[in-house]
Amino acid sequence: MALKNVIGIDHAVVMVKDLDKAAENYKRLGFTVSPRGTHSAHMGSGNYTIMFDPDYMELLGVLTPTEHNAPARAYLEKNGEGIERIAFTAVDSAEGAEEIRARGYPPVGPTDFERPVTMPDGTVSAAKFRTFQWPTAEAPGGVRIFACQHKTRETVWIPELMKHANGARRLKQVLMVAPEPAAEAAHLAKMIDRETRNEADGAVAVPSGGDRADFVFLTKDQLGKRYPGVSLAGLPARGGAGLVIAADVAAAEKALGVAGVNSAGGVVVPPAAGNGTMLAFVKA
Length: 284
Fold this sequence. Notes:
The chain is an alpha+beta fold and about 280 residues long.
């Protein structure tokens, strides 16, 4: 039985060392970036969001070291910048937490939090969430997973933030490199009650649910063969490697300029130019 309260990938969290510099970099890559959000003192972090439909990316940075952000800081220390967490959409976080508990995964949370949001008309509102996490030690492919219930969608999916010069529309795949892709994919599939799917080049996909993006586990060598001519410098041997984004490829090519590499029928930003995250723009 698939999880009833978890319905596929909601957003990808890219952990960065300098939050404001990362936001400027993503603006140069043709993304519309939200105003900076600041989380609670307990969380000690801040973020910028890059909104698609029905999902998004989050650039996350530590503003003040706290106990809560210790795992994120440890990730940066060990891996450098890159995809540190993937969020699923939670219909009801309290019920979702009980669902994973029943499957042998003691949940962290649910936890309620919010951050102020400056709306396009200049007024200040709040984005409110209720999240729960699978146990921190359960990190398939080295990436933690959690689920996020949006209590105020209207302060997150703001129409003005959803139009991008690079033509980005939605997440299609989350690419995860690992020496043993099949084992990592099986681990994730068990955690979210999904089936794995073998791909022609030996990679293993795990659908995240509904019409949302798939996870694709593959070796670094397989990733290099999928995207010839794209430098994979800076990627860890095991961890989040990149995002495949459905987009208007011509718009992406124009917006990216010299940062983009034509490969695999689309245009690709190498990890070194994407804050540790490869961005592959493909036809929507």
